[in-house]
Amino acid sequence: MRASDRAYEALREDILQWRLPPGTLLAEVEQSVRLGVSRTPIREALARLTSEGLTAPRGGRGAVVTDISVDHLGELFELRGALECRAAELAARRGDPSLFAGLETELLASREATAASTDHTSYYALVGRLDSAIDAAAGNSYLSTALKNLRVHLTRIRRLAQDDPDRLAAAATEHAAIAAAIAAGNPVLASAATTIHLHNSLGYLLAAGTPSD
Predict the structure, then answer these.
(1) What is the value of pTM for the model shown?
(2) Sign of the C-alpha dihedral computed for residues 169, 197, 161 and 126 taken in this order
(3) Which pLDDT belongs to residue 138?
(4) Taking the CB of residue 134, how many other CB atoms lie within 10 A of it?
(5) What is the pLDDT of residue 122?
(6) Are 79 and 169 within one domain?
(7) Looking at the structure, do residues 151 and 59 belong to the same domain, yes or no?
């Protein structure tokens, strides 16, 4: 892997996991020392992150991690509703019912463990598998690419929920309903279940409080 790719992956993961929270200044010299690469790969990595909207240029010698504001949140969820509801509809028409029935079972089983644990890595991985299954079943490469780009920002937003166990348990139930509707081959129900989940997620985040510009 090229040095710029390694730097990009490391910085991107740190941003998504909030190890580099919004507002953090990413100076080329400091990041070069931290990641053990020269400044040129750092500069290339920051350019890629800026193209994804995760950073913004700052003074020609680095970048700053972008904020997540209430306005940004609303815009992201507007786009998320359009893309994810359509993907769920297509998955219900084209997907393997047994695959989504299995995911429904796993999601329902995850509720108690999610509520009782402080480590929710496995839950997020399960949700990621559901997302991937829906993308694959939808069978639309353009839609899949758009969702992939959107989820970069959604990963950051999840951290605003502060891993609240009650909200995660409720979200597991909502995700299970989406999987069940797709397994049943019902596109209308799949879209409705997705809408309910997005509505509840946005409402929770707004009530919890979101940083503003």
Answers:
(1) 0.81
(2) positive
(3) 97
(4) 26
(5) 86
(6) yes
(7) no
Confirm whether 213 is domain-assigned.
Answer: no
Contacts 24+ apart (CB under 8 A), 2-6: 2/41, 3/37, 3/38, 3/41, 4/37, 4/40, 4/41, 4/42, 4/44, 4/45, 5/45, 6/35, 6/37, 6/41
Q: Quick one: pLDDT at residue 159?
A: 67
136 and 105 housed in the same domain: yes
Please count the structural domains in the chain: 2
Q: Is-contact 172 123, C-beta < 8 A?
A: yes
Does 142 fall in a domain? Answer: yes
Judge contact between 48 and 149, C-beta under 8 A.
Answer: no
Q: Is residue 41 assigned to a domain?
A: yes
Of 39, 50, 41, the closest CA to residue 12 belongs to 50
Q: For tokens 């796993």, name the residue.
A: 106
Which pLDDT does position 120 carry in this prediction?
Answer: 75
Q: Which two tokens stand for residue 4?
A: 């710029």
Residue 94 lies in a domain: yes
pLDDT of 137 reads 98
pLDDT along the chain (213 residues), means of 10: 91 90 92 92 94 87 84 86 97 98 96 74 90 97 93 78 78 96 98 97 79 37
What is the domain range of residue 49?
3-65
Residues 156, 59 within the same domain: no
